[in-house]
Amino acid sequence: MKINGAKWDESFYPSFTPEELLRMGIFGGKYFNNIKDQFPLDWFDDAKMVEPGKAADPNLNYYKVNASLTLSEWKEKGWIYAVDPNGWMQWYFHYFLGRRNKEMDTVQINRWKSLVARHMGQIKKKGSYTPKQGQTLLHWAYDVNLTPEQARVKFKTKFSKI
Predict the structure, then answer these.
(1) Phi/psi class of residue 18: alpha, beta or left (left: φ > 0; alpha: ψ in -120 to 50)?
(2) CA-closest candidate to residue 93, choices 135, 36, 137, 48
(3) What is the extent of the structural domain holding 153?
(4) CB under 8 Å to 63, separation ≥6 — which residues?
(5) Which of 14, 61, 135, 156 is the most exposed place for a label (fewest CB within 10 A)?
(6) How far apart are CA 16 and CA 27, in angstroms?
């Protein structure tokens, strides 16, 4: 399947578009202040964001909890790469727009698959999820209320129209 003119990796099936994520509330409204100009401005029309220079506000998150590490913590863990110095979500927004970078795409899609599998496995075992798990999965564009098969179907249905 092609989205925005570029082939999409079949093993990567996010539940939400970048614009939807911004409207729902991710990263305490802080994440995109310094890179907003890299993306379509209309994505930010209804985005839940803090003013530049302000601290992240967990109340802007969809689940009203902090489920983020700081950018410096991401750097310490080796999760930040030069091509997308703000991390996974910056990569996803560019990927959504059609940018392809074989090495980074492989790294980030594998990180996405690992995180989703780990959290959804915990949720399946427990039978429910915490707000922090819901927010974490939302940060990775995954709907905590869907099984992997439901997420694949939703992706194919929704994203095929883009």
Answers:
(1) alpha
(2) 36
(3) 2-159
(4) 131, 132, 134, 135, 138
(5) 156
(6) 15
pTM of the predicted protein model: 0.92
Total tally of structural domains belonging to the chain: 1
Burial of 140 (0-12, 13-18, 19+ CB in 10 A): buried
pLDDT band at 162 (very low <50, low <70, confident <90, very high): confident
Residues, the chain: 162
Q: By the 8 A CB rule, do 10 and 1 touch?
A: yes
Cα–Cα distance measured from residue 134 to residue 142, given in angstroms and rounded to the nearest whole number: 9
Extract the tokens encoding 141: 């564009």
Supply 92's token pair.
């996803």
Percent of the chain with pLDDT over 70: 100
Q: pLDDT tens, 21-62?
A: 999 999 999 877 788 899 999 999 999 999 988 999 999 999
Distance CA 7, CA 95 (A): 10
Integer Cα distance of 12 and 109 in angstroms: 6
